[in-house]
Write the structure tokens for this entry.
Amino acid sequence: DRLQRPDDAIAAFRRPIELDPKLANPRFGLAVLLHKLGRNAEARTELEGLLKIKPDDAKAATMLEQLKRTP
């Protein structure tokens, strides 16, 4: 349902990040959503930010590597 209202979904993920930029889970969720919407450059940016906060996050690192190979 949120993919039908992507701006609302993006805002829902951004709110907790704005309140606490060190939250990893909403940042990862936002990256996944952006990727599903075809906004891969933005997804990569979110994943890079997440990995600065949590460098040992294997899911984020794997997804970032996959996105780097995607235009």
Notes: The first helix runs from residue 6 to 19. The mean pLDDT is 92. The helical segments are 6-19, 24-36, 40-53, 58-68.
